[in-house]
Amino acid sequence: MTKNVVCVQPEQPILDLKHIYEGAPFHHHIPVTKNGKLTGIVSLIDFMRAISDASLDDNDAVYHTKKVGEIMSIHPISVSKDTTIGKVADVLAKGEIHSIIVTDEEHVVGIVTTADIIRLLLKMEENHHTEI
After folding, report:
1. How many domains does the chain have?
2. Which of 29, 35, 85, 107 is a Cys-bridge partner for 99, taking CB atoms 3.0 to 4.6 Å apart?
3. What is the pTM of this model?
4. What is the arrangement of strands in the sheet containing 107-113, beginning at the earlier edge strand?
């Protein structure tokens, strides 16, 4: 799980998303919170669709007029901080989503992505050689 997750709020301009995505390294999914509680998620694809006709210039109007709340997906998949990695991996293995937000009473405490699961498997492989 990645801790210290960068979150945005629905009323922020999507220019803030642009600046987050331009930073590295960064997950492609950004949780959206309101009053500290999870309310949505924005994927890189959501962002790219929102700016499809825009340039990369920060002064392009879309970055200032469109808000995060307009492009976010509501009801993101989340799990409690006590959920096992096996249950998280099972959900991610279905391939319908690529990240799961980890919460503690609706407050974001982390994010798990398919890349996190792969890194865990590689670490386990280093410790115990297994064959396919």
Report:
1. 1
2. 29
3. 0.86
4. 78-80, 99-104, 107-113
